[in-house]
Write a structure and sequence with these properties.
The chain is mainly α. The chain is flat, with a radius of gyration of 19 Å. Helix 1 packs across helix 3, helix 1 crosses helix 7 and helix 4 packs antiparallel against helix 5.
Length: about 240
């Protein structure tokens, strides 16, 4: 069952982050936007299940994907109407989305024996890992370190300064570099990333509050990159 669960998580992460635009995220109270997001989840789930090669009857695959899309929309609507957009609601939302995939994975196992293309599964896992590091991590880190950002540097909701955009791109590239170093067998390269960033952001780090913000963001960013990369390497061993 774990293989089904992993692939469903991959489909969820791809549909909920790289395939979800900022506009969709902000407009989910609109019915047409909510339906569009659900359709993206349905299509992504169908693609992942089909491409990885599981021999499940086509109607069953469609029913599973549609069910996931409907449940995802219900959870999203509960979040946007009942909770503010902060770290706790973000985590609860993702836990709920992933939690509903467990019984779905069990149902898939009942419908079909384990049958998949290992190479395709590996590709899906690493692509998902890349986007988790590139995209998903940014959402989590932004919410986590917001309380450490000096008040004068905080931006109103939905507005992003050029400084914050630059910080976001720096974080994305440092995580991708860490991802690449580990996969190539050179984890020691992460030390050069930390050293280089420390030198380049020395002036910002002179401010007490800004130094805390930079340090927490950097350590959290690299921890996520390292953890996700090794998790990807481990999960690929389950598809042989």
């Amino acid at each position: 069952m774990i293989q089904y669960f992993i692939m469903l998580i991959c489909a969820h992460m791809l549909a909920d982050f790289p395939l979800q635009t900022n506009w969709i995220a902000r407009q989910k109270k609109r019915v047409i936007v909510s339906i569009t997001h659900a359709v993206i989840h349905i299509a992504t789930t169908l693609a992942v299940i089909s491409l990885t090669g599981w021999k499940i009857p086509s109607l069953t695959i469609i029913a599973i994907a549609v069910g996931i899309g409907i449940l995802h929309s219900i959870i999203d609507l509960i979040k946007v109407y009942c909770f503010e957009d902060h770290l706790n609601s973000f985590l609860i939302d993702q836990i709920a989305h992933i939690g509903v995939l467990l019984p779905v994975a069990f149902l898939m196992q009942r419908q079909s024996a384990i049958s998949y293309h290992p190479v395709v599964a590996h590709i899906v896992i690493y692509i998902t890992g890349f986007f988790v590091i590139w995209n998903t991590a940014s959402h989590f880190i932004d919410r986590f370190v917001a309380k450490y950002l000096p008040s004068q540097d905080k931006q109103p909701k939905h507005t992003i300064s050029s400084h914050n955009q630059a910080s976001d791109w720096i974080g994305k590239f440092e995580r991708i570099l860490a991802f690449g170093f580990i996969l190539m067998g050179y984890p020691e390269g992460i030390g050069f990333i930390i050293a280089g960033k420390s030198i380049l952001r020395f002036q910002d780090a002179k401010k007490e509050k800004m130094s805390e913000y930079i340090l927490i963001g950097t350590l959290l960013s690299l921890t996520i990159a390292i953890g996700v990369t090794y998790l990807c390497r481990y999960t690929t061993t389950l598809f042989k």
